[in-house]
Amino acid sequence: MRSLAVLWVQITLVCGHALAASKPHVLLILADDLGYGDLRCYNAQSKVPTPNIDLLAREGMRFTDAHSPATVCTPSRYSLMTGQMAFRVPNGGTVFQGAGGPSLIAPGRLTLPGLLRQQGYATAAIGKWHVGLTFRDKTGEPIHKGGLDDIRRIDFSRRIDGGPLDHGFDHFFGTACCPTTDWLYAFIDGDHIPVHPALPIDKSKLPKHPYANDCRAGLIAPDFPMEEVDLIFLKKSREFINEHMRTSPDKPFFLYHATQAVHLPSFAAPEFKNKTQAGPHGDFIGELDHIVGELMKDLEKHGIADKTIVLLSSDNGPETTSVVHMRADHDHDGAKPWRGMKRDAWDGGHRVPLIIRWPGHVKSGSTSDQLVSLTDVMATLAAITGAELPHDAAEDSFNLLPVLEGKATNPIRPYLLMQAFAGQRTLSIRRGTWKYIDHRGSGGNNYTSAELKHYALPEAAPDAPGQLYDLENDPGETTNLFFKRPEITAELKALLDKSKAEGRSTNTKQP
């Protein structure tokens, strides 16, 4: 009997290894503030060459109606990591700065990396976290604020709680929030900051241009190169791939590479400056393209490019400053062809590039007009890896596998939810070509400001408490039909309210 038990264990281990080896590796590249119109494969008039990303699109599927779950960093990243819209959780409209937190992800909640780790994956996060975590002072009290005084209170000898290692990742190297913007200029390695930020940042040595004014006067570590942060992230991701393939070549990996590019300030590394003829921000987009190309080279070097699902997207639309100055200075429109920008409920704030490459499964050079959200990544990878999603997880995530395999004949999603800058107070919903915005105005930016007033549009229904647009006939969201199509307004308002009340958009019936 003992020999049979041993044999059974051996067979189970062998089968487990074989099953793990059959699963694809996953590389998820999330750019920051990358607009729909920033890439040549989405906008032929883009003034920035993006040959590596364009090649990724030619070798995979390009989605034309993909959306970030929110119009700013933190809630979008929460929703990507959990498959749940951030407005459903406390502080789900927050954008953390510095030592901000605690983590939006509740203890015990199933995450995308946690799901894949259950399926035998090695998991690593490199780059910007920005979902919240907990630093502590010398007495052990948590610090959940983002200012300079709060950074000075941190006891860097203590463990950082609530970061990637507490939410499904085996490895993490990156930053708490926006790497070159948010007060705390230091790298986190695992759950500690090994080289402490000790001195005030000296901004006199940094580039000076219209895209360089987003850098707060925080503390900086001596090993933190403000103009080369993305190259450090690239180095760490390449090291992870190389080490994994050396030590565990038969085990699948999930690598989440979250770039600083192209969030302001636009600090391209020295070797990328003046390379695009589209100014500092164009050079930064060019650096992002280079990073994508280098990661693909590593996959090819190890012979796993055809065994890896590569996903590329952005956490929201392009920043106002970059849009305004790129339009004026370089005739480049990162929001093209949509109305709005980062923070706005209009499509320019959340319609983002999404490219998925998976040889043998995704047809090369294909395009999909399916309505999708980055929340859908979790259900899709669950289906691909054979994982079961419990009912209390991924409440807003839909399985896109039929789309990837060219088998979808109908829309996957019955509707799509989105949140603008103010979280639950600025929600909107898409069903088919109809879009209902449950508030007045942009939901984010101030279009009476000197910077943006040039882009303000006359309001077709100034007395309406919300906005209704027919995107088929009015993709620019110029004519509010709130009063002219009251039946559609009522239906979408009721569906939005129902989804809010039920706490999910999957497995619900439309009113």
Structure commentary:
By secondary structure, the protein is of the alpha/beta class. The chain folds into 2 domains: 22-414, Alkaline Phosphatase, subunit A (3-Layer(aba) Sandwich), CATH 3.40.720; 419-502, Arylsulfatase, C-terminal domain. The protein has 11 helices and 20 strands. The chain has helices at 2-22, 51-58, 73-82, 112-118, 148-152, 229-247, 279-301, 320-330, 376-385, 401-404, 486-502; strands spanning 25-31, 61-63, 66-67, 122-128, 135-136, 142-143, 171-175, 184-185, 188-189, 199-200, 219-220, 253-258, 308-314, 354-357, 366-368, 372-373, 416-419, 427-431, 434-437, 467-470. The protein has a 9-stranded mixed sheet, with helices on both faces. A 4-stranded antiparallel sheet has the order 17-18-19-20, covered by helices on one side. Helix 6 runs parallel beside helix 7 (279-301).
Q: Strands, helices and their partners?
A:
Blueprint: H1 2-22, E1 25-31, H2 51-58, E2 61-63, E3 66-67, H3 73-82, H4 112-118, E4 122-128, E5 135-136, E6 142-143, H5 148-152, E7 171-175, E8 184-185, E9 188-189, E10 199-200, E11 219-220, H6 229-247, E12 253-258, H7 279-301, E13 308-314, H8 320-330, E14 354-357, E15 366-368, E16 372-373, H9 376-385, H10 401-404, E17 416-419, E18 427-431, E19 434-437, E20 467-470, H11 486-502
Parallel strand pairs: 1-12, 1-13, 2-15, 3-16, 4-7, 4-12, 8-11
Antiparallel strand pairs: 2-14, 5-6, 7-9, 10-11, 13-14, 17-18, 18-19, 19-20
